[in-house]
Design goal:
This protein is mainly beta and 118 residues long. This is Cupin 2 domain-containing protein.
Length: 118
């Protein structure tokens, strides 16, 4: 079946949406749609697997623990977040959907959700 990542967007004005596109052993592809959402102030993702993210539309700022300044991602920009690099979403576009494609590499089925540290 053919599908388009930029079509049939969920309503995200109240909450960010996560949708698995493909899930096979050791690899999960996810579409994330944000509309101004950010990570809570004391929330950090701390995953035991690598994550590659691509912004398809909109804009985002990612705060990475190993950098003093947030990383700005515009449409077409991508970034590999190595396993155990704590990170959080500091900003997503409030005026348009930010559509992400995330590739989770090395994730096991028992790690379906990220470890969270505060």
């Amino acid at each position: 079946m053919i599908a388009n990542l930029l079509n049939s967007l969920p309503n995200t004005q109240d909450a960010e949406r996560f949708e698995d596109i493909l899930k096979v052993p050791g690899c999960r592809v996810e579409r994330i749609v944000s509309f101004g959402q950010t990570s809570p102030a004391d929330f950090w993702y701390d995953q035991s697997w690598d994550e590659w993210v691509l912004v398809l539309s909109g804009e985002a700022l990612l705060q990475l623990e190993d950098r003093s300044e947030p990383v700005r991602l515009l449409a077409g920009d991508h970034l590999l977040i190595p396993a155990r690099l704590r990170h959080r979403v500091a900003f997503t576009s409030p005026d348009e959907p930010t559509i992400w494609l995330a590739l989770h590499i090395g994730e096991t089925s028992s790690e379906a959700t990220a470890d969270v540290q505060t």
